[in-house]
Amino acid sequence: MSEIEICPCGSNQPYTRCCQPVLEDHSRATTAEILMRSRYTAFVKKHDKHLLGSWHTRTRPKSLNHEDFPVVWLGMEIHACENGTAEDTVGSVDFTTRYIEGGQLSMLREKSEFLKEENLWYYLRGEADIKKNKLEQNKPCPCGSGKKFKRCCLNS
Ligand SMILES: [Zn+2]
Ligand SMILES: [Zn+2]
User: Fold this and answer.
1) Protein residues with C-beta less than 5 angstroms from the ion ligand 1
2) Quick check: helix, strand or coil at residue 2?
3) Using 50, 70 and 90 to split pLDDT, how confident is the model at 42?
4) pTM above 0.70?
5) How much distance in Å is there from the Cα of 42 to the middle of ligand 2?
6) Average pLDDT over residues 64-91
7) Residue 75 region by backbone torsions, left for phi larger than 0, else alpha for psi between -120 and 50, else beta
8) Residues 6 or more apart from 23 whose CB is under 8 A from it?
9) How far is the CA of 73 from the centre of ligand 1 (A)?
10) How far is the centre of ligand 1, averaged over its atoms, from the C-alpha of 138 (Å)?
11) Please, is 56 exposed, middle or buried when counting C-beta atoms within 10 Å of its C-beta (0-12, 13-18, 19+)?
């Protein structure tokens, strides 16, 4: 039996039954939280079609340059959702993501705002608060590989 891939979004569900169907079909994001999770997973998977397609036209960038994004994503935690249910047309999700970038461990906290138009949820905007911590080269890498940071994600 092949190993089951756990979804990157932190749900602890198999990827094939969590965010993957949403990445393939935007309309499966029936709540703001589902869309939030699928967009985080799309960043991890570099799935531009879903990222751009679920970005509100008012704030959507023309294209995505993944060189501007963190290379090693460590996870996401959702703290709270306001509205954003299947019955709402607006909603927000308060979350934290952790990632490694440029030799630093970053924690990004954001309250993202979502809008529903013609039955599809879209990401509108969010204000991020980023805390960065320099990582020690000889300490274990925070990605959980068990290797020293300098031999693992430092150079990614
Ligand atoms: Zn997921
Ligand atoms: Zn690592």
Assistant:
1) 7, 9, 11, 18-19, 37
2) coil
3) very high
4) yes
5) 20
6) 91
7) left
8) 38, 41, 42, 45, 47, 50
9) 14
10) 32
11) middle
Alpha-carbon 108 to chain mean position? 11
Give yes or no for residue 69 having a pLDDT over 80.
no
Coil, strand or helix: which one is 36? Answer: helix
Domain over 15-155 is classified CATH 3.30.160.140: no
Token duo for residue 130: 């980023």
CA 30–ligand 2 middle distance (angstroms): 34
Ligand 2 centroid from CA 18, angstroms? 25
CB 111 within 8 A of CB 127: yes
Give the residue extent of every domain in the chain.
Answer: 15-155
**pLDDT value of position 35:** 98
pLDDT band at 67 (very low <50, low <70, confident <90, very high): confident
Give the list of residues 6+ apart from residue 76 with CB closer than 8 angstroms, or none.
8, 9, 10, 37, 40, 95, 96, 97, 98
